[in-house]
Amino acid sequence: MSSYRFKHTIVRAVINYTGYLHPGDLHMNIIQKALDEVRFTIPVQLLELAFIRQERWAAIQPTSLDYRIRQKVIDSRVLVDCNLVGGIQDNVSLAGLPAQWVDSPYSAIFRIPKERTGGKVITTALSVGYGPGGLSRSAYFAPTQQSPLVGAAEQIIGGVSPIPQVNSAYVDLIGENTVYVRDTLALPLDLSLRCILTNDSEMNNIKPASYHAFCKLVVLATKAYIHNTLKVLIDLGQINAGQSVGTILDKVDEYADANELYEVHLEEVWRATAYLNDGTSKKRHLSMIVGGGF
Questions:
Q1: CA 223, 224, 226, 230 torsion-angle sign
Q2: Which whole-number Å values give the CA distances from 72 to 55, 58, 166, 231, in the listed order?
Q3: Tens digit of pLDDT for each residue in 176-215?
Q4: Are 127 and 191 in contact (CB under 8 A)?
Q5: Do 185 and 100 fall into the same domain?
Q6: pTM of the entire predicted model
């Protein structure tokens, strides 16, 4: 075996042993990719100082650095913000659910079990549709073969007929998976709710091309956490104990604007990235731009 091939084999063995994903793996987990980027960007000694040594029980109950970063930064902040600015758009059927009528047959409250949302939580209620999927009554039936003349006649009749009301935006989210629907028409029994659901807990709905945008969000959130956690403690240690912490303090000071950069990246980059990652939202947006034939 040549020297080059031997070194290449050793390097790949070390990478696999340490648990890092090799570059050819396109099915990597986005959370693990973000944790790897944090380690590549921030000195590990600084990470251990912020996430491990500050915990009084760390020596009694050892834990991994990745677990602490995910618990303190990703789960507590990043995933929450990602669910607030994005998510998965879906149509959830309300058919068969008991309605709590409010004052009249025009308003009702529906409590939606998580079995109908795939275990996810509704973050935004957009509209309700009258019928399965919010389609008009003519769409309930399968199309039949007809002559071009009959098809043209139907288009003429449809052009002069009043537009039927097939959905309503008078819907509010008033609790966890609980919506309040109100309208000027009597509500039918086969309602469907168009809503935004939370992302998958492991962010598996995000496409690999968007991993870098998410990783940058996690790196900035980690830097902000380090600055908020260590800045005051380092100053106190330097004043009270006279410790030499110049290098660490300089590094922490570099992260002073991390929180502001995180907010900017969340609004200007991740909001659009999450919207384009959701196929339903992207299709509806393109249909509004180029027409319903998209």
A1: positive
A2: 12, 14, 45, 17
A3: 999 999 876 777 778 889 999 999 989 999 999 999 999 9
A4: no
A5: yes
A6: 0.74
